[in-house]
Design brief:
Elements lengths: L2 E6 L9 E6 L6 E2 L4 E6 L3 E6 L4 E6 L6 E2 L4 E7 L17 E2 L5 H14 L21 E3 L29 H10 L17 H12 L33 H16 L2 E9 L1 H12 L10 H15 L5 E3 L6 E3 L5 E3 L1 E3 L2 E3 L2 E2 L7 H16 L13 E5 L18 E5 L3 E6 L4 E14 L5 H16 L7
Parallel strand pairs: 1-10, 14-18, 18-19
Antiparallel strand pairs: 1-8, 2-4, 2-7, 3-6, 4-5, 5-9, 6-8, 11-21, 12-13, 14-17, 15-16, 19-21, 20-21
Helix pairs in contact: 2-3, 6-7, 6-8
This protein binds oxidized coenzyme A.
């Protein structure tokens, strides 16, 4: 027997008057248990409110822009034969997607895991509405209180700010996109504040298909690399990529495809600097501190950002404006066993080299222990990738977009250098400045590089 039931907003934690940002069903739609009905957005989180029962939506009592609290009526759903007791799972305001620091894709995965685990029996707490034999009065279904929106997971592995703006979409839309294989980061949202709607995903799929099947699997429009059965030539093993590699890989590919890269190569004579650093190490006052070459490089780069403001800028997404930053935060690539992470040293211009080396050593230790907090990987203006402790004579680092440059540092080597009269052995540090050619032209890059070289060759220049 059909049984109309009121679907109410469950306990959503300490939130009142939360905005409804999407209504995902219309009258006549059939819903299953757990089908998302609406999406709510507080200032901290986005969450779907799923149906606690299966049936047909008879009425939707909520519209986009409404504000709701626990107990607000969402919709009336008429069940076919079932009673709420038959419902296998409770409605929970699940798939809470923390924003402003957490990684949404990761949250989504975790929350889905949580949804799978949620198999509590439903609780009907709403009183039956005044009875009316024809039609039967809807019963209020107040689903089992869900867990309060969770804080973001402690460690998204990449510098989120460097990943560009995060796709703004509800968990239901994320699921929809994933089912269709659509990459949300490539879709422009037409909803409020650029939120990606179902129609946007559908349109994206349509236009990708209309490109005649030449698109890569990532929707980039590039021909896909054909799948190869490597086992035809010998034994192989398949291992999953680490979470960090998967996320940073997407980010690197996006930066590589979007930014017209040029790398300017140079080398600095750090013979005197290295002698100074070694001398400091033997002084008792600095015995407890690890003064690294990288500390000097970081400080010099901050000076270069001051001297060349374009180095400390980002291009607006429409490519028409340059956003010049008045703060000096530098990201340093740290190699961890799970992949690359980029913690950010803040306000480098105000800190001493000793402070910077101490801070970097603490940050890189925490990065390797996977203990960095999301905000410690955000807000970088430029990056340094130092492979100097490992080796190499040079490389072409990828700009960490939306930053406009990255400084690569390779291993310092003793080399013969002509001093005007004879060759003398000098310690030469290879530097590779990759830059976004839309923002920095070749001559400016050469000037920036020359500035960095001369400041490293004579660190008194840092005082200027
Ligand atoms: N030339 C010669 N020697 C160098 C050097 C250079 N350019 N840079 C560092 N060294 C030396 C250091 O001085 C140190 O020796 P001492 O102990 O005698 O001082 C030794 O190499 C080890 O240095 P380190 O690598 O432990 O420390 P660091 O401060 O130079 O670097 C960090 C810190 C976090 C940047 C580094 O450990 C790291 O992770 N590097 C890899 C970054 C990376 O993966 N980049 C690629 C990104 S793109 O995939």
């Amino acid at each position: 027997m059909s049984d109309p039931q009121n679907i109410l907003i469950p306990d959503i934690g300490d939130f009142d008057n939360v905005d409804v940002i999407e209504v995902l069903v219309s009258p006549g739609d059939t819903v299953d248990v757990e089908s998302p009905l609406i999406t709510l957005e507080s200032d901290k989180a986005t969450m779907d409110v799923p149906s606690p029962i299966a049936g047909t939506v008879t009425e939707v009592r909520i519209a986009v822009g409404d504000q709701v609290s626990q107990g607000s009526l969402v919709a009336i759903v008429t069940t076919a034969e079932s009673s709420p007791e038959d419902a296998p799972a409770a409605a929970t305001a699940q798939q809470t997607e923390a924003e402003g620091g957490g990684n949404p894709k990761e949250n989504e995965r975790e929350n889905e895991g949580e949804a799978e685990r949620a198999a509590e029996p439903p609780t009907e707490t709403g009183a039956q509405l005044p009875s009316d034999p024809d039609p039967p009065a809807p019963k209020a279904v107040d689903p089992t209180p869900p867990p309060a929106p969770r804080p973001p997971p402690s460690l998204p592995p990449v510098n989120e700010s460097d990943s560009g703006p995060l796709p703004h979409a509800s968990p239901a839309i994320r699921r929809f996109a994933r089912e269709l294989g659509a990459d949300l980061s490539k879709i422009n949202g037409s909803g409020t504040h650029g939120r990606i709607l179902k129609e946007d995903v559908a349109q994206f799929i349509k236009s990708t298909l209309s490109q005649g099947g030449t698109s890569g699997q990532d929707g980039s429009g590039l021909p896909a690399i054909p799948e190869v059965d490597f086992s035809r030539w010998g034994s192989v093993a398949t291992e999953p990529l680490s979470r960090i590699k998967k996320i940073s890989g997407r980010h690197l590919q996006r930066a590589w495809l979007n930014v017209p890269h040029v790398t300017h190569h140079d080398e600095a004579d750090i013979t005197e600097l290295e002698a100074f650093r070694k001398a400091l190490k033997s002084e008792r006052a600095y015995a407890q501190v690890r003064i690294t070459l990288l500390g000097f490089v970081i400080k010099v780069l901050a000076s270069a950002m001051k001297a060349f403001p374009t180095l400390n800028s980002s291009l607006s997404t429409d490519g028409k404006h340059l956003i010049l930053k008045h703060y000096f935060h530098i990201g340093v690539a740290v190699d961890t066993k799970n992949g690359l992470v980029v913690p950010v040293l803040r306000d480098v211009d105000t800190k001493s080299i000793l402070e910077l080396t101490t801070e970097l050593s603490a940050l890189s230790a925490r990065a390797r222990d996977r203990k960095l907090k999301p905000d410690e990987m955000q807000g970088g203006c430029i990056s340094i990738s130092s492979l100097g402790g490992i080796g190499g004579i040079g490389f072409t680092p990828i700009v960490n977009a939306p930053e406009v440059a990255i400084l690569g540092v390779s291993k310092a080597q003793m080399k013969p250098r002509w001093d005007g009269n004879a060759f003398a052995p000098r310690l030469m540090l290879p530097l590779d400045l990759s830059y976004d050619h839309r923002v920095i032209d070749g001559a400016e890059a050469a000037r920036i590089s020359a500035f960095i070289v001369s400041a490293l060759e004579d660190s008194r220049r840092l005082l200027l």
